[in-house]
Specification:
The chain has 131 residues and is mainly beta. The chain contains one helix and ten strands. The longest helix has 6 residues.
């Protein structure tokens, strides 16, 4: 076998975003699975909405609420709203409602916080829009 110089490796794919807004993903995608197929402008129905939770971590105090989402293809995923998105959308998003959500970041799921059978979850923050 002839080796002609160093082997070039393709650049890692960019972080997967849902709609407009910067990607909040840091580092390479989850090493054991491809990026999820989540069309950014597909409506999602809220099947479960949790109460607001307050927390403290190394970055300070914060708040969040989570939703369980399902799309028209019956794909389920967990979504968590943080910070200003909690104030903006907690009273707007309701169980049974159907919404377009953009500006979220897809990341590997934290299995200890969800019972949904999906290895991915969506984080919604300051740049999220819900219509």
């Amino acid at each position: 076998m002839d080796h002609q110089g160093p082997v070039s490796r393709p650049a890692p794919p960019p972080a997967r975003r849902l709609g407009p807004g910067p990607a909040h993903h840091r580092g390479p995608p989850h090493p054991k699975a491809p990026l999820p197929h989540l069309p950014p402008f597909r409506p999602r129905s809220v099947t479960k909405k949790a109460e607001i939770k307050h927390f403290t971590n190394a970055r300070g105090e914060g708040k969040l609420f989570s939703v369980e989402l399902i799309d028209d293809a019956s794909a389920e995923i967990r979504g968590t709203f943080f910070g200003a998105a909690v104030d903006k959308y907690y009273e707007t998003v309701h169980e049974g409602g159907v919404y377009y959500m953009a500006g979220g970041a897809v990341k590997p799921a934290k299995r200890q916080y969800t019972s949904i059978n999906n290895e991915w979850e969506i984080t919604f923050g300051d740049r999220t829009t819900v219509t």
